[in-house]
Specification:
Layout (H helix, E strand, L loop, with lengths): L1 H4 L10 H28 L1 H9 L1 H20 L3 H5 L2 E5 L6 H7 L10 H27 L6 H7 L2 H8 L3 H32 L9 H5 L1 E5 L2 H14 L8 H37 L5 H5 L41 E3 L5 E3 H11 L15 E2 L3
Family: Belongs to the pex2/pex10/pex12 family.
Membrane topology: Multi-pass membrane protein
Protein name: Peroxisome assembly protein 12
């Protein structure tokens, strides 16, 4: 591992593992925020239900504010700043003699408005478009097996995919092309990462060259400059009145809140992941907890077959009692017996009862079994 972390004569060049770690932190923010909003939306649906339904837009707006603040104040995105990285304007010529002559942090490294908005395009805009494309692909039934797709689509999805208008043709083309385009993009980024790992590329993402920046580790000069800036902010001023101090505190509150996210958001992510593990069925903590209401209630006994119903063999596990073949797309009736989806649908639609127990059943009572 030391071979891949060794950057030769440039100690401020980050390793690929640091860059991927900050990307993983950024990817964890959206599901964590969505989980928190979903929990609070159950208690306050009047105020938060619309926000949860438009979560991608809400998250993009929040990250636009956060990332813009960190790019302007720290020359880095939120995740990059958390891992001790920064963005700088890429110099045309960089030599040790030039660094020694300038001393400290060169003024030309600070991001301009052009680099900030280009960075926001790829930090916020591109992930938002990819998330919406993935949602649209899943809305059209993408990623579903053919045996489920033919029988599980509702009328709206079938109409959307069979429409002969321009929109219908676009949906079909998008559904067919999206998996290949997404896979090609991921493969392209993987090859670029490998090239960066072996010093064949100057940056780990191809669009950083177009933005005109590169990503560096924070050096001693960066920490010294941050310390001096913090000392200037807290310099004592005895002439300020109470009203002036309160006014300055209110003006600084948004900045202080955004800067505190550097510690609050990762802590919240860790806490949410801990709760997911704690309440997961496979967690060891579940074995330590004892139900205050006594032992678990056993499942109900299976209903016996009706003498006039179709014969049912208890030893024929995984065989549909109607077609006598292996169950395809398993579906349960209210009686508890499992059949093929097509067999159960046809039987209930015609006779409105379970073919084994002859108990009443309706089409809307069919339940697919994920096995």
């Amino acid at each position: 591992m030391e071979f891949f972390n060794d950057n030769g004569i440039d100690p401020l060049k980050p390793s690929l593992f640091e860059l991927l770690a900050q990307e993983q932190l950024r990817d964890l923010l959206q599901p964590a925020l969505k989980y928190v909003l979903a929990v609070f939306a159950q208690r306050y649906p009047r105020y938060l239900l619309r926000v949860v339904n438009r979560h991608e837009e809400f998250y993009a707006l929040v990250m636009l504010i956060v990332e813009r603040h960190y790019l302007r104040s720290h020359n880095a995105s939120f995740a990059e700043n958390f891992y001790g990285l920064k963005r700088r304007r890429r110099p045309f010529i960089e030599t040790e003699r030039a660094k020694a002559a300038v001393g400290g942090i060169p003024s030309g490294e600070k991001l301009r408005s052009q680099e900030i908005w280009r960075s926001l395009l790829f930090l916020v805009g591109v992930p938002y478009l990819r998330a919406k494309a993935q949602d649209y692909f899943e809305e059209l039934g993408g990623g579903v097996g053919s045996d489920i797709l033919d029988e599980g689509l509702d009328a709206r999805q079938v109409q959307a995919l069979t429409d002969q208008s321009f929109k219908g043709r676009f949906r079909r083309v998008f559904k067919a092309a999206y998996p290949y385009l997404n896979t090609s993009l991921e493969l392209w980024l993987l090859l670029w990462n490998i090239a960066y790992l072996f010093d064949k590329k100057p940056s780990y993402r191809p669009w950083l060259s177009w933005i005109g920046v590169d990503i560096r580790r924070l050096g001693i000069e960066d920490f010294r400059a941050a310390s001096l800036a913090a000392q200037k902010k807290i310099s004592p001023d005895t002439k300020r009145t109470l009203t002036t101090r309160l006014k300055q505190l209110l003006l600084r509150s948004p900045r202080l809140l955004l800067d505190s996210l550097r510690l609050l958001l990762p802590t919240a992510i860790f806490f949410i992941k801990f709760l997911e593990w704690w309440y997961s069925p496979g967690s060891p903590a579940r074995a330590l907890s004892v139900s205050p209401q006594g032992p678990a209630i056993p499942p109900p006994s299976m209903l016996p077959p009706h003498p006039q119903g179709i014969p049912f063999d208890k030893t024929a596990y995984g065989i549909c009692p109607i077609c006598k073949k292996a169950i395809n797309n398993a579906t349960a009736l209210p009686s508890g017996y499992v059949f093929c989806y097509r067999c159960a649908y046809d039987q209930v639609e015609k006779h409105e009862k379970c073919p084994v127990t002859l108990l009443p059943a309706r089409v809307w009572q069919l339940r697919k079994v994920l096995i």
